[in-house]
Amino acid sequence: MYIRKPSVAGAFYPSDAEKLRKMINGFLAAVDEKEKITDKVVGIVSPHAGYIYSGPVAAYGFKLLKDAPYKGYVVISPSHRARFNGASVLPEGFYSTPLGNVEVDSDIGKALTLKNLFAYIPEIDQPEHSLEVQIPFLQLVCSDFKIVPVVIGTTDLNLCSEIGNLIADEVLSANKDYGVIISTDLSHYYSYETAKRIDGEFARALSLFDEKAIDQAIKSKKAEACGEGAVLSGIALAKRLGASKAKILKYANSGDTAGPKNEVVGYISAALLA
């Protein structure tokens, strides 16, 4: 059985299991839970940088999943290395991290690879960090779960909508109770204040829970998100699984967490709620 080895362990996060577990648990413990979420959490939007930069933000979303009843998650990330009109999905096997192996849902994975817009592309999946970095968080907040790992190669609104709906078709037809993890960072390498303004535009569009508003904000260059395709596909999927709104849980940038303020990267954590 194929095992997808970690590509950024020891770089984006510790390669030592105990150090990794301690780091993530520290992020989760530091979450400021000012407001209790009472609506059903269908999914989350989560950042994907090195943990010292984005881990404190990612923890806000993943902490909500501690009480979630899901048996698996569709994890959707962008492709950082190549654009293509579709999505790469690992049909079967395991995603490996220092915390162990997570099984891919082969029922859904295999079914997706038979559809237009889907294939398994190893040279896209293997080096992609933005999906991988979500898995250790899931391993610490969930138990006995599977994943459907999807890397999106396009930012075309219509294609992304179709991808999200095709995934939803398979999840719903299999009658599986799955959550959604959407991976994206926001603006890159602006000054601290400029990044806050640009990322605020993304947050406002996301709060509308409307793919067209998000697409327009990014295409007009008012907002930025390197995971635009993942966001568009993921929201289409989450809506089919019952989500009706988005709530921003936390925003920060690398100037707040572990870097200088002259050039920062923006991070957001949001809950997709029924």
SSE topology:
Blueprint lengths: L2 E2 L12 H13 L11 E6 L4 H14 L7 E7 L8 E3 L4 E4 L2 E4 L2 H8 L4 E2 L2 H4 L3 H4 L1 H8 L4 E7 L4 H17 L4 E6 L4 E3 L1 H17 L2 H9 L8 H13 L4 E9 H4 L6 E10 L1
Parallel strand pairs: 1-5, 2-9, 3-8, 3-9, 4-7
Antiparallel strand pairs: 2-12, 4-8, 5-6, 10-12, 11-12
Helix pairs in contact: 1-2, 7-10, 8-9, 9-10
Secondary structure: number of strands = 12
Regions with little confidence, pLDDT below 50 for 5+ residues: none
Rg over alpha carbons = 17 Å
What's the number of domains?
Answer: 1
- How many helices does DSSP assign? 11
Give a short account of the largest sheet.
9 strands, mixed
- Beta-strand content bin: 15-25%
Q: Could you characterize what this model shows?
A:
With 274 residues, the chain is α/β, with parallel strands linked by helices. The protein has one domain (3-273): LigB-like (Protocatechuate 4,5-dioxygenase, Chain B, 3-Layer(aba) Sandwich). Helix content is 41%, strand content 23%. The protein is built from eleven helices and twelve strands. Strands 2, 3, 4, 7, 8, 9, 10, 11 and 12 form a nine-stranded mixed sheet that branches. The protein has a three-stranded mixed sheet with strand order 1-5-6, covered by helices on one side. A hairpin with a 2-residue loop joins strand 5 (94-97) and strand 6 (100-103). The chain is globular and about 45 Å long. The model has no long low-confidence stretch (mean pLDDT 97).
